[in-house]
Amino acid sequence: MSQHRSGLPALTLGALGVVYGDIGTSPLYAFKEVFASGQVPFNTLNVLSALSMFIWALVFVVTFKYIGLIMRADNGGEGGMMALLALAARAVGDRPGLRATMLAVGAFGVALFFGDGVITPAISVLSAVEGLEVVTPAAKPFVMGIALMVLAALFLVQRRGTGNIGRYFGPIMILWFLALAVTGAVQIAREPDVLRAFSPLYAVEFIGQHPHLAFLTLGAVFLCLTGAEALYADMGHFGKQPIRLAWFALVMPALVVNYLGQGALVLQQPEAIANPLYRLAPGWALVPMVVLATLATVIASQALISGAYSAAKQS
Length: 315
Known about the structure:
The chain is mainly alpha-helical. The protein has helices at about 10-20, 20-25, 35, 45-70, 80-90, 95-130, 130-135, 140-155, 165, 170-190, 200-210, 210-225, 230-235, 235-240, 240-270, 275-280, 285-315. Helix 1 crosses helix 10 (about 170-190), helix 4 crosses helix 11 and helix 6 packs across helix 8. The chain is globular.
């Protein structure tokens, strides 16, 4: 897909469906993982500190690192690990030792991508289907089976291709991000004190005063960044401008508002930490939210599977 054949709106819509599926479904599981192990004490200060780490991780890693820096290092408009390797190979010239080192680093990077491709679909789909437990506790015994069926169906359709349904990915992801933003904003309005998490001082002081707890929290922070590499990897398909526009216009605001909304909710109802994203939704919207979340995680998984196929082919 080139920018000559498709306009900016179409490319931006496509980027929403392919580039941002993975990072866009992180709110399903990232924030609740901060306190899931019980090692990070649940209190107001730790909630605000974790939220501050989430927000500034998105700012520094995605906005500054990928949008601001890495996307400038394109190879004839192409991005991704192979493009980066080609640029590195050109830079080292006729130095076999450096070339071998670059090749090893590139292979390691591809291996990490494959690892992400193995883990993320399972975590995302399972987290989406777990919403059924919020709808009715009686669904708990069936959650794992339903998640397995969804994943099996996803891999079974690969041989037939996904071109016919791919056109729906963008609109579905728009609905998903809007749902994240709206449900988060409602809770922020009820607990505006959570906006204090915008201050980076909470993150800095948390790291300085409680380095062990901050290290544990970083595991969840990394979860909120999963899929960020897709901004660079898919640059050749959609171009820099559509990817940047989608991030600043919809994706980043929706993610930040939703994480803040989850924080606002658990400050009011600490028991909601078990599944804060679904607890954001009103009772009548729970089932539609589960369906939308499942579709969003399938789209995210599909993008990751396609990316893995592409990386394997290029390798």
